[in-house]
Amino acid sequence: MPRTPDHSDQLCLPRALLLDFGGVVVETENNPDWQLVFARQLVAEMHTDGIDLLDVVAVERDLRAGAKADSRWKDAMSRPFAPAELRYEQFWADFVAADWPAPALHWVTERARELCRQMGELKQTRRTRVGMIELLDAADAARVPVGIVSNTLMGVVHRDYLDAYGLADRFAAQIYSDEVGVRKPNPQMIVLGAEAVAVPVPDCWYVGDNFDRDALCGARAGVGGNIIMEARDTYDQPYDLAIRPHAIVTDPLEPARAVPRCRRHRPPIADPIHPRVAPSQTRKSMKRTTTRRTGVAALSMLGALALGFSLAGCAPSSAPQAEATGDVEIGIPDDGFTLDKLIAAAKEEDGITVYDSTGKIVDMAEAFSKKYGVKATGVKVEADAQADMVIREGESGNVQGDVILLSDAAEAMGELIPRGYVTSWMPPDKTDVVPADMRDPLVINFSANVWAYNTEAYKTCPVENMWALTTDDWKGRVSLQDPLLKPQDTDFWNQLATHADDEVAAAYKEFFGEDLNTDEDSATAEWVKRLAQNGPLLNKSSDNIAESIGAPGQDKPFFGDIATSKFRENEDSGYKLGLCDTMSPWPGRMYPKVALIAAQTKSPNTAKLFVDYLLTEEGIEPQTSDGKPPVLKGVELPADEASGVSAVLDQLYVTDTSTADKDLDSRQYWQDLWQVNYAG
């Protein structure tokens, strides 16, 4: 068997699909206190058996240490060509209980298999990935068998999940490393999977979520299609790899969305990208270390499979059906509406859960509950995960988030509202305080990003024009969020190209003293290209950007774009952040946060009451204090807001939500433009 077979960039249509489990078939989320829960259980069970030699604190500590040792062992085992899987007894005897008294060590070793099963159940929460059912349906229709090939310490946990959700029969075979004794990237794993579905390895596609275990295993085995599907830890690589998959996709539904865009815009870029990371970032915080797209042909064929070998249509069959509008009436009617009627109706319902990307939502929900006597629970959800959660819950009919406060207006208008997962509601009693152009979808406030500099190094802002950032003076010294990780930058660029390109061109003439000549589609595209070619420092979040700009004691600090909320670090961390109020044409930008209500909520009136509450000074205050300008007429940011953005609010670029759906369609174009030109 060749160690690293050569693959062409052209894929043949598969005769079988082999899928990884965690990250591909299901999404996983670690339960934060599983070690403590399990430690209490173990101590209680040992006590029942007459072993009282360890306390809960010691067992919890060793469970944490064992899990960390196991993780590092897995990283190390992705280097050998044919690694074996860890045995149950080996995990407990070597990684957890090596220093335990002999009776306790013997007790856990004797029960190692069952304890591994219990640990697997406690450690993570699993959810079937959005679009997976549709992919399985398409494979069935095309008579393409699907098998699972997965590393795991306890395959029974995975089998139990599939059984519980009625999915076991959807897979022709399940190959788990603990059951066969070898683990990926050992190519024997894929060989066993191919044999189980009775299809030769070269005629199979393998889809995994890790480069060092999955893509490497696919290459070693010689699969016909080697696909990476992005998941939580995809870009958390333990070491650099030369192996490149045929294609990288974000989820099983992505090809349905990506193929039409690739045909309208430019083809994806095939060269790997290695963004530079701020010095303070650890390997855990670096997410993007390779190309996001590797060929239209690969995506088109995976898209064909996901759509039953047809490029027609892209909405999942189980998606809620609705008109492409936010005007879906739920709860009490707007005719004859009064706040008292809404409150009375809400008191007859169960509580609601509210998703937002800020932790302030917890306090906001508690204050709402106290005010109205109805239950609301605020849950912080990472901004880039909100839309996926809404889709997943909508498809399954198991809606958990009743109100969603989403900072991605493009996703709301281009995907969630048209496909009927959510609706936007404008409270009739608040039309006098919300501008007309902020009502559909309803905008509750704005997040502001501004250009910032280090006030210790510079008495005044050292940059006065956006085009200065494309010159040698700022080569490698601009700190930005990676535009491949979150969409706010690409959406902003499309907004400028659509609504303000003349101003970008005028800024060029103002700075260079001559008219702009470009082969790009717009002045904005030319600026993006030159900025990418100037090698900015790319970061995962505003936290990293704020540190690179504002940390004291720097001779030549970075200049960059950050959220106004990060100016609190001046007091909390001693940073020296200053708002660049002289930047032309705009010192920053504002993008909206929209309030959405799940179409399938069981408490529609409580959800509507919460939205109404957000349109009060009291309701929105916790976010206003963070420098997020509200839409409410007559409500201003507090005088002590840290960034000072109030002084330049009228100079910021404000997102035009009327074309937000076009921003969604254009993301691939801007990402490709960035990738082909990035010089980091």
Per DSSP, the total helix count is: 24
Q: Which structural class should the secondary elements be placed in? A: alpha/beta
As a percent range, the share of strand residues is 5-15%
User: Which geometry do the CA atoms define?
Assistant: globular
Main sheet overview: 11 strands, mixed
Radius of gyration: 27 Å
Strand tally is 19
> Could you tell me how far the N terminus lies from the C terminus, measured between alpha carbons in angstroms?
38 Å
Q: Can you describe this structure?
A:
Residues 265-291 are annotated as: Disordered. It holds the Pfam family SBP_bac_11. It comes from Microbacterium elymi. With 680 residues, this protein is an alpha/beta fold. The strands form three sheets. Strands 9, 10, 11, 12, 13, 14, 15, 16, 17, 18 and 19 form an eleven-stranded mixed beta sheet that branches. A six-stranded parallel beta sheet has the order 5-4-1-6-7-8. A two-stranded antiparallel ribbon has the order 2-3. Residues 1-11, 255-302 and 306-326 have low confidence and may be disordered.
